[in-house]
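debug: dumping io for the single-chain case to check the tokenizer round-trip. Nothing else runs in this session.
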Amino acid sequence: MIRPRVSRFPARKQALAAVAVLGAVGVAATACASGSSGTRSASASATTSGTRPSPSRTSTGPDSPSSPNGQNGQGSPNGSAGSTGSSGNTGTGTTPPNSSNGSPDSPGSPNSPTTPGAPPSNVTTPTAPGYQPPAVPRTNSHVDCSVAKCIALTFDDGPGPDTGRLLDLLKAQNAPATFFVLGNQAVKYPDLVHREYAEGNEVGNHTWDHKDLSKLSAAAVQDEINRAADAIAAAGIPRPTLVRPPYGAVNDTVRAVAGFPFIMWRVDPEDWKYPDPARVADQIVSHAKPGRIVISHDIHKTTVDAVPAVIQRLKQQGYTFVTVSTLMKGVELRNGQSYFNRPPAATTGNGQGRPRRRLIETSTRISYL
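debug: decoded output
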């Protein structure tokens, strides 16, 4: 017997109703679990409407303002506008003057100092005490240059092919000098470096390869000085504790991280410019005064040719030749300070002859070396 079609409708309605009830219960349970009360999230609504949700303005994404790829340069490592140094905070949008964009230690970079002259966080300030008198007495080290008529001859940029002949002259005349040696030259002529010290002269540091330190990062300044010191020590002599910066050029960074006193000069015959032995000798003798430091270069044959006349004429005037350390004996040399000559002594109002406080010149005289 065929059942009427109408008789099946109630069953279907009941089944559909049951399914609807179960579905409603599931939706309600899901909504309760997510805490959304059955509402759709803003992101889902945006996706449904065909628009992308706007990204949050955080500083951690690869294209955020503080990331290396940020378009406005804030916090970027290239010293661009708005860079902030090591703090990571947003800057003012200006680049400090004299910054070298692209340098890892230029102002405004992640490694830059927060105050002028302060070493960057990735550079270790030397802990060595800096200048110390030579452990082994140098020639004429007994001389008291606060009383005697002293002068210090210094020679830069060597050793060179004529340094050996110069050493012969100095030894024969009992006239010690101070040699500010380049590290790359010390590697070429280690025997001459050793001989300079062994014969009673003083050996100082003139950096590795004569770069202008005032144009370098703090780390590069230390590298120039340390590499030269290593090369000089490799010649079998003590590490130098006096530094002469090439061109006499220093700035706050160099003063902060060099770790040694700077020995400048007061007499410059410009022997690099005028290769004339007679002129070189005349310039040195005519500008000589007690306590002064003379600069010249043992890499020039004409300079070495001038030395016999210089020694003879100055000895006739009563001068004693000493190393820089002997010249400065009794003077407190401070790291990062520049010294052009021995500070003169003065008599105070009480007549007791107390020495004047250190005379330190802050201006830099630039000269091609």
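debug: round-trip ok. Residues 1-13, 15-22, 24-127, 346-369 have pLDDT under 50 and may be disordered.
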